[in-house]
Amino acid sequence: MSDEIKNLIQESFLRDEAKRELLRLLELGDWQNFWPAFNQSLIEELQKRQNRTNEVIEKYEKELKKMENDFVKESEKLQNYFNEQSLNVSTVDLKTKEEIWEKYYSAREELQKSFKQKMSQTLQTILLTEDARMFD
Q1: If DSSP codes are grouped into helix, strand and coil, which group holds residue 136?
Q2: How far is the C-alpha of 104 from the C-alpha of 76, rounded, in Å?
Q3: How far apart are CA 105 and CA 85, in angstroms?
Q4: 20 with 6: CB under 8 angstroms?
Q5: What is the DSSP letter of 91?
Q6: Span 73-115, pLDDT tens digits
Q7: pTM of this prediction?
Q8: Could you tell me which of 2, 57, 44 has the C-alpha nearest to residue 25?
Q9: Any idea of the CA torsion for 63, 69, 70, 74, to the nearest 10 degrees?
Q10: I need a labelling partner for 128 at 20 to 30 A (CA). Which of 33, 52, 69, 92 fits?
């Protein structure tokens, strides 16, 4: 059992200093101090990781909110531009109106693709940046 616990500690995500202390207590056979130290180290590391995960989520949500605001602004600009274009066209000129609306929907689709791409890139950037911190 002692070897199994030793391997578990060595392969764990606990900090190196906590691993050293736990291995020292294990070598001494000091089970009375080992288990509380093990539990405390585990709780601290899990809490640290949870806090970092929450920070990453918060950072992504903040960036997402900015992107959503930008998307809404761009959508409104696009809508206004094509509304203005339509006003200058006779109501019976269906061909021109159709061209305008095709351009509008095409531009709208590009805006949506761009938004999705930015979301994905932002998430990847945050995760890559935070990944190194996550396992300090």
Answers
A1: coil
A2: 12
A3: 14
A4: no
A5: T
A6: 999 999 999 888 888 888 888 898 889 989 999 999 999 999 9
A7: 0.66
A8: 2
A9: 160
A10: 69
